[in-house]
Design goal:
This protein has about 200 residues and is an alpha+beta fold. About 25% of the residues lie in helices and about 30% in strands.
């Protein structure tokens, strides 16, 4: 059974119904949106978006191309891409972690027996920013995690200026993160993932 057949919020969703002019002719239709887990074949598109989003801000990427391929081979089910007319416009990549807090090892490891999802990166293509897509994608990702019975919470680390964004997504700050990258320091944040049984009974999970 495919993921789309059991996860209704990953099915293609039209953003808006076609509008017609008074004469009955269509004026325009916004591109249809599709949400799906990523595959290793998406790695280059993912890295191009990530590189543009992060290099100018922090000088480095959370994941390099080989690391993206690594996680999309190990745990593609913990990723989510937003596609419009077949074009990747935003994505999230995660992996499982088995400790209460993130450590340096969490940057490269996937712990199959873990119950926490470490969200490595969320990025939106430059031409689609300032449209709320990051918040929408995160909401869909958290809904998706609720259908995975082994997941209990989501963890991430971010710089100070991103804390308000993630707080609006429902994350709470845990304090300074143990992980450092060069001279960069991070705040660790978490979001509880609840309602597994309810979701399975009522949303086709």
């Amino acid at each position: 059974m495919s993921a789309l057949s059991v996860l209704p919020f990953l099915k293609p969703v039209p953003l808006r119904s076609p509008r017609s002019s008074p004469g009955g002719q269509r004026r325009h239709t916004l591109p249809a949106s599709e949400f799906r887990c990523l595959s290793p074949e998406d790695a280059v598109s993912v890295f191009e978006i990530e590189r543009e989003a992060f290099i100018s801000v922090s000088g480095d990427c959370p994941l390099h191309l080989d690391e993206i391929r690594h996680f999309l081979n190990l745990c593609p089910e913990l990723s989510l891409g937003w596609f419009e007319e077949g074009r990747l416009v935003a994505f999230i990549i995660g992996s499982l972690w088995d400790q209460d807090r993130l450590s340096q090892a969490a940057l490269t490891l996937h712990k199959p027996r873990g119950t926490a999802v470490h969200i490595h990166v969320l990025a939106v293509h430059r031409t689609f920013r300032q449209q709320g897509k990051g918040s929408i994608l995160m909401w869909r990702y958290l809904q998706y995690l609720r259908c995975l019975p082994f997941v209990r919470r989501a963890l991430l680390m971010c710089e100070d200026f991103l804390v308000p964004f993630y707080q609006k997504c429902g994350f709470e700050a845990l304090g300074p993160c143990e992980v450092t990258v060069g001279e960069l320091a991070f705040v660790e944040m978490q979001h509880p993932v609840r309602g597994h049984a309810f979701m399975r009974r009522n949303s086709g999970c």
